[in-house]
Structures are given as structure tokens and as C-alpha cells.
Design a protein that fits this description.
Blueprint: E1 3-4, H1 17-30, E2 43-46, H2 51-68, E3 74-79, E4 89-91, E5 96-99, E6 102-105, H3 108-117, E7 121-123, H4 138-144, E8 149-154, H5 161-176, E9 182-187, E10 192-193, H6 206-225, H7 229-239, H8 245-257, E11 264-270, H9 271-279, E12 286-293
Parallel strand pairs: 1-5, 2-9, 3-8, 3-9, 4-7
Antiparallel strand pairs: 2-12, 4-8, 5-6, 10-12, 11-12
Helix pairs in contact: 1-2, 3-5, 5-8, 6-7, 7-8
Length: 294
């Protein structure tokens, strides 16, 4: 069986099984779930930084899904594009992904249905070779849903992203008749603020980082909660408040096609808050992270 080797194990998250499981458990315990959750969760948005910075936010989303649905057959994971993947959504359609927790098997039937049904989706395993935005989520799925399969897809911030998400939603609906539960996960970090990132319209300092979170990030969050995929895409291109705008827009569109009318924000923070809380340090730069369910 063809298997993708991990690209960022030992960097973004631990490279051995024991430490990986230990850190996942720490991430899951770090944030408390709200007492009330939707009766059905069809999708979520998670960050993809190193687990030290955003693992607790990502874990909160997967933990919420686990509380609502003890069993999920397949996770369709829509990833940000940090490396060229061509002009289409790049589907990893065969084999498995290796992580320190073992092999996460590809749901080849769902992958094939997406490629067949979505004009802008193409099989392209090579595009995933170095990309981390999907990989960092896979061990959470393996730990909480050990029987689940995955369908990794890189989605560029292209105009087709919203319509592609709707088509993914149609594929999910077509599989529901067979009793299959499929959840769509979109991977994105939010505003990358500061001189290091070439984006500092409000200057530097505490007030600038506060603006990045409370204004720039919040714009993305508001559009996500309102299920406005087109606005997510267009404003991210203008205001640089989501590095995975295509993945996020597609996830929102899929959730909307599946009948959802609003999202629920579980957590919102940024790297500077994490550094201050964990290490007592601060920086001129920050990267935003949000956990959202639909």
C-alpha cells in the first residue's frame, strides 16, 4: 500500500508514538468544551501551527466532534497551500498517511467520488509531499477515531473554492444513504502579523497585535460563523487574515450544503498569547488561531 511519509513529525509535533500520544492528551485537556454543543457536527475549522502553539485549539474541535459523534467513518481534510499544488484542488486519493501513531488509511471510494464529481479536483499525491497543514491534524483523528479513514485535499485560495466546497457537500450527502458519517475539516491559521511576515499595517507593539486579533482575525471569524464562504475568500486575499482561505471557504460551503446555518466559535487566540502564558515572553509578531465547528 502506498503511504505518504510524515514531513513535519519531530518539528511541528512529536516524532515518536509515546510522546505524540502524551502531547495529544495534553492538548485535549488544556481547553474545556462548552456544556452545550450542536446535536450534529458536520464540519470544523482548525489551525495548523506547531502543537505547542495551536494544538489545544485544534484538539478542542476534534474533542467536540468526538463528544457528539462517537464514531466517524471518514474525515475529509481540506488543507492550506504553502507549496505549489497547481491550479486545482489536489486530492490524495490512494494508500495511507504514516504518522507516529501508524497508518491513516485513505477512503479511496470517497476520494474517487470527489474527483469524479468536482471539476476542479484532481488526483495529485505529489503536491502533499511537504505540506504540513493537513498532517498536523491527522494524529488527533487517529487518537480519537482510530477506525476513521481520511481524504486529504489541498485547496488553493482560488475562485472555485466555495463551489468546490458545495460539491464536496453533495458527495457527503450521497454517502449518507449508506449510513456513512463523514466530517469535513478545514485547516487555516489566521492573521500572520508583524515585520517577519511583511504585514504590519498598524505598526508594531501591543496595540497592533490586539488589532490583528480583535479586528482582522475577527472579520474572518464573523464571516465563518455567518457561513459566508465568498466573503472569507475575498477578504482574506485583501486583508491577509487567513493563510488557508480556500480550505476555510470550501469547508463553510460544504457545511452550508449539509444544512448548517451558523458556526460556533470554540476558541480564538494567537501565538503571542501562547508565548506569554507558557513562557512569559512576547514578540512583535503574532499568528492567529481559531477553532470553529458547524
Amino acid at each position: 500500500m502506498q503511504a505518504r511519509k510524515p514531513a513535519v513529525a519531530g518539528q511541528f509535533y512529536p516524532g515518536d508514538n509515546r510522546t505524540c500520544v502524551k502531547e495529544i492528551k495534553m492538548c485535549l485537556e488544556d481547553r474545556e468544551l462548552p456544556k452545550k454543543l450542536p446535536e450534529v457536527i458536520v464540519a470544523g475549522i482548525v489551525p495548523h501551527a506547531g502543537w505547542t502553539f495551536s494544538g489545544d485549539v485544534a484538539g478542542l474541535v476534534f474533542n467536540a466532534i468526538r463528544r457528539v459523534h462517537a464514531h466517524v467513518d471518514t474525515f475529509i481534510i481540506l488543507g492550506a497551500v504553502h507549496y505549489p499544488c497547481g491550479k486545482n484542488a489536489a486530492v490524495y486519493a490512494h494508500g495511507a498517511w504514516q504518522t507516529p501513531l501508524g497508518d491513516a488509511v485513505i477512503d479511496e471510494a470517497v476520494a474517487a467520488a470527489i474527483v469524479e464529481s468536482c471539476p476542479n479536483a484532481k488526483e495529485n499525491e505529489n503536491a502533499h509531499q511537504f505540506e504540513h497543514s493537513i498532517e498536523v491534524a491527522v494524529p488527533f483523528i487517529q487518537h480519537l477515531f482510530p477506525e476513521a479513514k481520511i481524504v486529504p485535499i489541498m485547496v488553493p485560495p482560488a475562485e472555485f473554492a466555495a463551489s468546490f466546497g458545495g460539491e464536496v457537500g453533495d458527495v457527503i450527502i450521497s454517502k449518507l444513504d449508506g449510513g456513512k458519517r463523514i466530517v469535513c475539516i478545514g485547516s487555516t491559521d489566521l492573521t500572520h502579523y508583524g515585520p517577519r511576515y511583511g504585514f504590519d499595517p498598524m505598526g508594531t507593539g501591543d496595540a497592533a497585535i490586539k488589532w490583528a486579533k480583535e479586528v482582522n482575525d475577527q472579520q474572518f471569524i464573523d464571516f465563518a460563523l455567518q457561513m459566508n464562504a465568498e466573503k472569507i475568500l475575498h477578504t482574506a486575499l485583501q486583508n491577509q487574515n487567513a493563510c488557508g482561505a480556500g480550505a476555510a471557504a470550501a469547508t463553510v460551503a460544504a457545511a452550508k450544503r449539509l444544512g448548517k446555518t451558523q458556526g460556533y466559535l470554540l476558541a480564538h487566540t494567537h501565538s503571542n498569547e501562547v508565548m506569554e502564558r507558557k513562557y512569559g515572553q512576547s514578540s512583535e509578531e503574532s499568528v492567529g488561531y481559531a477553532g470553529i465547528i458547524f
